[in-house]
Design a protein that fits this description.
Layout lengths: L1 H5 L1 H6 L7 H11 L4 H7 L6 H5 L1 H8 L3 H18 L6 H9 L3 H15 L14 H15 L7
Length: 152
């Protein structure tokens, strides 16, 4: 089942599991759901195998289970690799490829934007900012500084 969740368009068209479309949508949304505390901790870091090895430390800091940290990290990396070279609005590209809601796609767009542009989000001066604060900033920069608007 997880193989299909990694590529949601496969889940939608597979015949192995008899899943109603409404349940399919819920499964995909939950699989790609983000923990804001974990996302804030990983934001701005290079999505490398070296950082993946540090997830046990991040798990302890954030009180998020290691398995969940690994899933979220792998999802971040998968979304990043998929949309980094796509043309057009990033949020729509994420929504269409991963079949997730617009609010969740906006969170992933923020992660991709900060990772792609190598923003330093771990500076001591920025520690008080939450993941939602950074999402708002990313949304504003995507809308006003890039070719394609985030939500269009």
């Amino acid at each position: 089942m997880e193989k299909h969740l990694r590529n949601p368009t496969l889940l939608k068209h597979q015949a192995q599991f008899q899943i109603p479309p409404s349940l399919c949508k819920v499964l995909i949304e939950q699989y790609y759901e983000l923990d804001n505390v974990f996302a804030r901790e990983i934001l701005g870091k290079k999505l490398s195998s070296r950082n993946r090895k540090d997830l046990d430390e991040i798990s302890e800091i954030t009180n998020v289970r290691l398995r969940s940290c690994r899933r979220q990290y792998d999802n971040f990396k998968r979304v990043f690799k998929t949309v980094e070279d796509m043309e057009g609005p990033m949020v729509k590209n994420i929504q269409n490829h991963f079949l997730i809601s617009e609010p969740l796609a906006q969170k992933y767009a923020a992660i991709v934007f900060f990772a792609n542009n190598r923003f330093e989000t771990s500076k001591k001066r920025l520690q008080y900012l939450t993941f939602d604060d950074f999402c708002y900033c990313a949304d504003q920069m995507i809308d006003n500084w890039t070719i394609g608007k985030a939500g269009m």
